Amino acid sequence: MPDETSRAAPRVAVVGSGYVGTVVAACLAFLGRQVIGVETDPHKLCELSRGCSPFYEPGLSDLLVGALGSGRLRFVGDVGDALAHSEALFLCVGTPPGDGGHADMSSVREAAASIGRELRTPHVLITKSTVPIGSGHWLRSLLEDAYEGSTPLEDILSVVSCPEFLREGSAIADFLTPERVVLGSDSGSALELVREVYRPILEQSFVGGDPDRCPALIQTGLLSAETVKYASNAFLATKISFINEIAMICEFVGADVVEVATAIGLDSRIGPRFLDAGAGWGGSCFGKDLQELISTAMDYGHDPRLLQAVTEVNHRQRQVVVEKLRRHLKTMRGRRICIMGLAFKPGTDDLRDAPALDVARWRVAAGASVRAHDPMVGAVAEIPEMRTLPDMYEAARGTDAVVMMTEWPDYVGIDADALLSVMRGRLMVDGRNMFNPETMVRRGFVYEGVGRSPLGDPYGGLELNRGFDQRVEIGNLEGRVA
Known about the structure:
This protein has helices spanning about 5-10, 20-30, 40-50, 60-70, 80-85, 105-120, 135-145, 155, 170-175, 190-195, 200-205, 220-255, 255-265, 285-300, 305-330, 355-365, 390-395, 410, 415-420, 435-445, and strands at about 10-15, 35-40, 75, 90, 125, 155-160, 180-185, 215-220, 335-340, 370-375, 385-390, 400-405, 425-430, 445-450, 460-465, 470. By secondary structure, the chain is α/β, with parallel strands linked by helices. The protein folds into two domains: about 5-220, NAD(P)-binding Rossmann-like Domain (Rossmann fold); about 255-470, NAD(P)-binding Rossmann-like Domain (Rossmann fold). A six-stranded parallel beta sheet has the order 3-2-1-4-5-6, sandwiched between helices. The chain has a six-stranded parallel beta sheet with strand order 11-10-9-12-13-14. The longest helix has about 30 residues, at about 220-255. The protein is elongated. Mean pLDDT is about 90; it is low at about 1-5 and about 455-480.
């Protein structure tokens, strides 16, 4: 990358080294920016300084090692040090679920107080944390309360909202090659500085970038930018809950939801992504952000019925998996069950709000013996009764049922005959619709998908006529998004 890019760009500090902050710091350093990451936990600070990522994200450890080795990235425990050597300050601390449906803003409050006390030179504060709508103005008030400098705060600080759209498992690509960059502020000069920080991304001028696919730049006010993040996640969650509602109807009438979803996804107004019926969404974002948006609406006296229904349908889907087990196995007491996949989606080791954990917890409570396998997850401390094994076939040995809960590639390529040979029973509950029902029944399984026809498509697949002979094999589609 050109040296002049590094010299011309604003120096960057990143407060918070969780999932978002670590990715932002490593990626900006890769782009040639001088970056200081702030982490107050001594152990975590030590690990980051050695290039060890605190969580699993494909490619991140290599990116950290390269950025540290180049001298463009370093981590410190003192926000004052970071402020003294930066102009752009990214706020990336956690905002977990709090009381009353709103996000817990205690970490944001603490970070703002620390920044306010140490601020002496002009900065643009860029909120990457997913914060409640209106937090940009609230942050300015917090900073004013803590500020101890002599120069009026309004002369040296501006706030810009730049919501993150990082998906676990593909966060680096999402940051470097996004579909859009959203910037919200009431200050033109602040927006100009952040645009300069993002220039290699906006122009796709870095090594590996694609200048023919530059992201859209959306510039708006603070409140609109903060709303974009919540609205985006709410829509994606709605799309998943919608197809899960259709899946239930498919089960009643004998239709196949994979065939239905494939057909409606070909409509350009709808699109195929996030139309995967199954056990529902999980993770740290959708549930928290939906609840925050619902709570915000109710604070203003509005009853957001659609958003509430989206959440209710999603919680029901976990119970749908349990009901399929109960219908076939009757009593759970003494039954042995294997859960394949614990992370809420493939490509991550994140267990936050993972549907698989609810299924495991409920079956343990009902008296079942539960084993599990996941390529990235070991023992789960919150469910000590569940035994995790490193080999998927050993995890399934002697079990009455196997429940597929995460679409790991390891499972898509599983040896069905070998799996069945080690099981005591024959039941497979496919909570992610990874397999063709007819194929699995032919292999000897009692197969239960979500919204699937018991025997699959009698014609062997869904046929598309696009002017030439093309067939799409239903039930073996790759690249599903959880």
